[in-house]
Amino acid sequence: MTIEADELHDDVAASIDATLLREARRNELLMARVRAGMVGAFALVELIYTAQGVGVPFAYRLPVLGYFFVALAFWRVLNRGWFFAGLWVVVPLLDTLVILARVQTSYSFHALQGLREAMELATALGLATVLVLSGAFRLSHKAVWASTVLGLFLYLWFGLQSDLEWPQLITHSAIVLGVGGVALGLTSQVRRAVRSEVARVTLARFLPETVLSGAHADPIALLTSPREVEATVLVSDIRGFTAWSMSRDPIEVLAFLNVIQGAIAEVVRQHGGMVDKFMGDGMLAVFGAPTTLDDHASKAVAAAKRMQEVVAQINARDGAGAIRLGIGVHTGKLVAGCLGSGMRMEFTILGDTVNTASRLEAYTKEAGASVLLSQTTVDGLSVTDGLRRLGDVTLRGRDEALGIWTFEPTDA
After folding, report:
1. Could you tell me which residues come within 8 angstroms of residue 327 by beta carbon, excluding any fewer than 6 positions away?
2. Assessment of whether the complete model's pTM goes beyond 0.70
């Protein structure tokens, strides 16, 4: 058996990268909305001044009017999903150039004295501050530094033309740099929020949404309120794994387990179940706990059948040939809750239903079948086509005989 784990690791890495990219696009989209609103307000002012025939000529107002349509189009394309990583430097640079072009026009056409000069500088300082803060949402400290440098340059460009005293320039520059420091801290908070989302997405591969939501909404209740539910338990085990692994390098063994266990765990997830734990070459999964699942017995049986197909595909693809699963499925009452205390806790399922499913899996070798279904599981199925009853068996630890079924034909 020679199987690489690269596909599974690449899948997890791709999921994390997709989450980061999605958050970065969402933040850029937020800034695009703000940008379109601000530039739209500036464009309206330009039109009012043009109608009154005051201020700079209309031709010099075109950059703002044109940039409004650019900002609007940028918002629309981002809203449709378009995005690339280099926007963190391209967009602030474009913002800076447009602001420079328009505000420089005002400086060139007016003698800046008194209130007019103060208003123009206040506008430049405000725009520089917004530019700096925009870097905080781009998930990169480099983006913050780039935005801060551009913002400081933008303000100093007009401040130096206004013949301000050096104490004023230094004070205003300190304000811009202070905003840059706040932006760095805000970036760290945003990055922590994104990492939390990445962790949630990663955990969602193994835990149902209700567990994750419960951990966020009411962690105390999740830890202290176990639930008794009717559910279906599936236990799987790789046949002959112990003997095979004794002659293999541990890294090869781990790679093998990553591929096989990852593949069948994905089948469980696709059918609405939860992987409770991996036990080396074994796996314990549950359908219907802690999240209520309609027709959980049918979902578990369908998952068991699909697992056999997935293993057959892996055998054919990698030439392993000898990979075989033993699977036991049983339906009944169980308790779902947290086990442990202190620094180490585990969300798990407990009860006779779990033990019976495990013993059914162990009995597959004696029964000459890869999959064994209990009578209670079959009783919960709406369709039993393709199943064959093997009879009754008294499993270890049980007093009563239990009817067992398998898929047709029997595949020893």
Report:
1. 234, 235, 236, 237, 304, 307, 308, 361, 364, 370, 371, 372
2. no
Measure CA 113 to chain center: 54
Cβ of 304: how many Cβ atoms within 10 Å? 27
Distances (CA, A) of 289 to 209, 235, 262, 299: 11, 15, 20, 13
- 18 and 69 belong to one structural domain: yes
Question: Tens digit of pLDDT for each residue in 342-363?
Answer: 566 667 788 999 999 999 999 9
- For residue 235, give the nearest of 272, 197, 273 by alpha carbon: 273
Burial track 165-180 (b if 16+ CB lie within 10 A, e otherwise): eeeeeeebbeebeebb
For residue 310 the two structure tokens come to 């997935």
| Helices first, then strands: H and E counts in the chain | 13, 8
Categorize the per-residue pLDDT at 83 as very low, low, confident or very high, splitting at 50, 70 and 90.
confident
Instruction: Give the C-alpha separation, 153 to 159, whole Å.
Output: 10
**Residue 149 belongs to what domain range?**
6-203
30 & 79 share domain: yes
